[in-house]
Amino acid sequence: MAGRLEGRVAAVTGASRGLGRATAAMLAAEGAIVALLDLKAHWAQAAADEIIAAGGKAVGLGCDVSDREALTATLGAINDEHGRFDVLVNNAMWNVYEPLAAIRPENLDRMIGVGFSGVIWGMQAAAPLMAASGGGSIINIASVSALLGIPNGIAYCGVKAAVAGATRAAAAELGGSNIRVNAVAPSTVDTEGVRRVVSEERIAMRIGQTPLGRLGTTEDIAKAVRYLACDDSDFVTGQVLTVDGGLAMALS
Questions:
Q1: List 43, 116, 121, 156, catalytic entry
Q2: HEC profile for the chain?
Q3: pLDDT value at residue 150
Q4: Catalytic residue status for 156
Q5: Within 10 Å of residue 199's Cβ, how many Cβ atoms?
Q6: Where are the domains of the chain?
Q7: Does 3.90.940.10 match the CATH number of domain 9-188+218-246?
Q8: How far apart, in whole angstroms, are the C-alpha atoms of residue 153 and residue 149?
Q9: CB neighbours of 29 closer than 8 A, spacing ≥ 6?
């Protein structure tokens, strides 16, 4: 039986590890040809090789998503290679947690460049390609932190709130081209990266606050992206889908 994305062409940014890697693998398992983008090509290709070994179709590409010209050229090359472009997952993020008094210009500039400008440049580049293919689906990765606020996370929360707002506006603008634009807003996802920077005490606190009693997994979030990428959600646009085990509800 054919997958739900059979024959479609997708790109996932920040795809060498964590959520991006899991999302790329899930889209490929549904039959999509997936381009994995990350800052270093060999990072992305290592993840793509795992997909290929599992029987999927994938390629790893190096691209700094904060560079408008580079991202536009990369997505254009993907379209030229396959003759269509159907799904874009804007997942890439660069982040450092700092209290307000310690926020440094170079950190803020990089966070905005990757986490927000990269989303804008991705949507800008993808829209005409998708329109030429008859439509498509853009999924931006926001965060439940944009709804709740977190200590030492002013810049991060601001960037992710901007992603949510841009998602809604882009959905209104691009709907006439049959392009759906949605976002997924995860809570804390259990990854090696999170375990490195978040204390066990804080993780336990977050689990205790979550009605479903656990952290999210990369697969939890990837399944939400899959839903928004495929035809199961063909009348869904402009939504920010919170995938947080009930955390935001419980704390509201």
A1: 156
A2: CCCCCCCCEEEEECCCCHHHHHHHHHHHHCCCEEEEEECCHHHHHHHHHHHHHCCCEEEEEECCCCCHHHHHHHHHHHHHHHCCCCEEEECCCCCCCECHHHCCHHHHHHHHHHHHHHHHHHHHHHHHHHHHCCCEEEEEECCCHHHHCCCCEHHHHHHHHHHHHHHHHHHHHHHHHCEEEEEEEECCECCHHHHHHCCHHHHHHHHHHCCCCCCECHHHHHHHHHHHHCHHHCCCCCCEEEECCCHHHHHC
A3: 84
A4: yes
A5: 9
A6: 9-188+218-246
A7: no
A8: 7
A9: 3, 54, 56
Residue 10 has which token pair?
């997708």
pLDDT digits (tens, 9 = 90+) for 211-246: 999 999 999 999 999 999 999 999 999 999 999 999
Type of residue found at 33: I
Q: What is the pLDDT of residue 1?
A: 55
The residue whose two tokens read 């070994």 is 53
User: What tens digit of pLDDT does each residue of 10-59 get?
Assistant: 999 999 999 999 999 999 999 999 999 999 999 999 999 999 999 999 99
Q: Give the span between the Cα atoms of 32 and 120, in whole angstroms.
A: 23
Q: Looking at the whole model, is its pTM more than 0.90? A: yes
What tokens appear for 56 in the block? 């999927």
